[in-house]
Amino acid sequence: MNIINEKVVEYLDGQYKTLRPELFVIRKYAEQNHIPIILKDTETLIISLLKVKKPKRILEIGTAIGYSASCFAEVCKTTEIVTIESNMESKNIAVKNIDMLGYKNQITVLFGNATDVLKDMEISEKFDFIFIDAGKSHYKDFFDEALKHCEQEALIISDNVLLNAKTVSDEYDPRSKYKTNIKKMREFLEYITNLENIYTAVIPVGDGLAVSVLGDMND
Ligand code: SAM
Q1: Surface-to-core class of residue 191, CB atoms within 10 Å of its CB (0-12 exposed, 13-18 middle, 19+ buried)
Q2: Does domain 6-214 have CATH number 3.40.50.150?
Q3: Ligand 1 midpoint to CA 91 (Å)
Q4: Which end of the chain is more exposed for a tag (fewer CB within 10 A), N or C?
Q5: Secondary structure of residue 182 in the 3-state scheme
Q6: What are the residues whose beta carbons fall under 8 Å from the beta carbon of 142, sequence distance 6 or more?
Q7: pLDDT tens track for 114-170
Q8: Per-residue b/e over 33-65, b at no fewer than 16 CB within 10 Å?
Q9: What is the pLDDT of residues 84-102, one digit of tens each?
Q10: What average pLDDT does range 67-89 have in this prediction?
Q11: Ligand 1 center to residue 64 CA distance, Å?
């Protein structure tokens, strides 16, 4: 189930503008091949946040075929981007797409399970913008590992936190097919919305976006 009224989605999608024609080709390829990438309204919001934040280094968890990382590179021309993908085939397509788009020197694609990759990463490697968009039942692990690599006033964006409204109510999962993912996502949201010195807004855009802002709340 779409979390937003279908007519609203249709209207907003009608206003969508691609950042680059080549990126639109990759979006179409992903849609035709059932490769999940950021939804159009999610992309628009993240791009707006990037324009405000102007991050120096971005970490992405979940590359797929490199679409979102390439959008980030297109908007933040001097920002270094590190993205992690656990599926070799997707990683290889991502590297090809990134090369073809000319972002090879800006985006590094790391292969492996993001939790392990982050555990092995030098603690001195810091990021001020983090996008979590991988295995939905591992968000807490991703978030905790990512936190260790955050600059003081970083922004952490977690995508798909409403799981097509399943996070909100079990009635949207009548056969209990996604029971574990739902339980874990509810626990994750409970966790991040109660952390000290991190302010989180859960926004009903796309499939639900949690925007967490780090920093001392008394500042
Ligand atoms: N961010 C991409 C975009 O919008 O273009 C889409 C990412 S897709 C929703 C999620 C990706 O995360 C998949 O390609 C999947 O293979 C990868 N993934 C799942 N679990 C992972 C993990 N533990 N570590 C790294 N990547 C993972």
Answers
A1: middle
A2: yes
A3: 10
A4: C
A5: helix
A6: 61, 114, 115, 118, 132, 134
A7: 999 999 999 999 999 999 999 999 999 999 999 999 999 999 999 999 999 999 999
A8: eeeebbbbbbbbbbbebbeebebebbbbbbbbb
A9: 999 999 999 999 999 999 9
A10: 98
A11: 5
Q: Which atom of ligand 1 is nearest to the CA of 37?
A: 4
pTM of the predicted protein model: 0.97
pLDDT single digits (tens) 166-190: 999 999 999 999 999 999 999 999 9
Q: 138 CA distance to ligand 1 centroid (A)?
A: 11
Pocket of ligand 1 (CB under 6 A): 36-38, 62, 64, 67-68, 84-87, 90, 113-114, 133-135, 138
Among 133, 140, 143, 209, which is best to mutate for testing ligand 1, by the most ligand atoms less than 8 A from CB? 133
